[in-house]
Design goal:
Length: about 325
């Protein structure tokens, strides 16, 4: 009797949504974790090939699905490995990544993503964890996908409410006026509902378009603009700068200076920088509220389909 064909193992179930601060179970990307050393971890994730927001383009996964995967690691390790109680607030301070664009291929590489996480610093005060600095190396199969470095602070509810003052109760404020979107094609988007920029009357300037009803960017109630919204807005501003040339985001270096409030205009200024050592276009974006920088990022893109292009980590 011939041997029975082997069936592929079913995909691992996602981790509980509360561990990654997601309300919709379909948005949970992480599938498991284990500690490999006192401050080192192996985390697994699975990327869908038909995500409604992080769309596949040019045969590759959206680069920012990597950032959402890493963002989900913050609460997972905070709660599961560093004893941070639920209800504490995780506040991004800085984040940078560099990825290998070929490793985003949807067809040739597995959907599973392996992330090797090292906690470089765990700050503790009065017996509780108050900040974590993480180094992440991501792989798809044997192919290195990306490296990332990030730091975030952790605040208990009384401290957070004291710092946020009147902004802590966002539900008491009127809903922000939703501005008109720029044309989706100008920012490498398919649907206008996913455009997070509104036109301004100054060249290379946009207004942040905040839609609290967006099912992905506002998966749960928040009192300020989520970090992933800021990353998406920065990416769209760079695409607008390079339009109509198709490009792919391959590196980002972000600083979160202040909260971006939901109920005040936020202006985004984009400036082209000299290309990097590999000739890849770069841009810097600055988010202002009340004439004060709240978020800055430097982005590196790769021209899609450029002959002889190589992708570097």
């Amino acid at each position: 009797m011939p041997p029975l064909p082997l069936c592929p193992a079913p995909p691992a179930p996602p981790v509980p949504g509360e561990l990654v601060h997601k309300t919709n179970p379909a948005e949970v990307l992480l599938t498991g974790w284990r500690r490999t050393a006192p401050d080192a971890f192996a985390v697994t994730a699975r990327w869908p090939d038909d995500h409604p927001f992080y769309e596949v383009r040019h045969g590759r996964h959206d680069p920012l699905i990597l950032s959402e995967t890493i963002r989900q690691i913050f609460p997972l390790l905070s709660h599961a490995a560093y004893d941070v109680p639920f209800g504490h607030h995780l506040l991004w301070e800085h984040y940078r990544f560099t990825l290998q664009a070929d490793a985003l291929d949807v067809v040739l590489l597995p959907a599973a993503v392996d992330l090797h996480v090292t906690c470089l610093e765990a700050v503790r005060r009065n017996g509780r964890t108050t900040a974590l600095t993480l180094l992440i190396r991501a792989f798809r199969g044997d192919t290195q996908l990306a490296t990332a470095h990030t730091r975030f602070a952790i605040q208990p509810p009384p401290v957070y409410r004291r710092l946020r003052s009147r902004f802590a109760d966002a539900h008491m404020w009127p809903a922000p006026r939703l501005g008109l979107p720029v044309p989706p094609a100008r920012v490498a988007r398919t649907h206008s509902n996913d455009v997070v920029l509104s036109p301004a009357h100054t060249p290379h300037r946009h207004q942040l378009r905040i839609d609290p009803e967006h099912p992905i960017l506002f998966d749960h109630p928040v009192d300020h603009a989520p970090g992933m919204l800021l990353l998406e807005a920065a990416r769209q501003a760079a695409h607008h700068l390079y339009h109509p040339e198709p490009t792919l985001l391959v590196a980002m270096d972000c600083q979160f200076h202040r909260y971006v409030e939901l109920h005040a205009p936020c202006w985004i200024d984009t400036r082209e920088l000299p290309p990097d050592a590999y000739g890849r276009p770069r841009a810097t974006v600055t988010f202002h509220q009340n004439h004060t920088p709240h978020f800055t990022a430097t982005l590196t893109h790769q021209r899609v389909g450029s002959p002889g292009a190589r992708w570097h980590v």
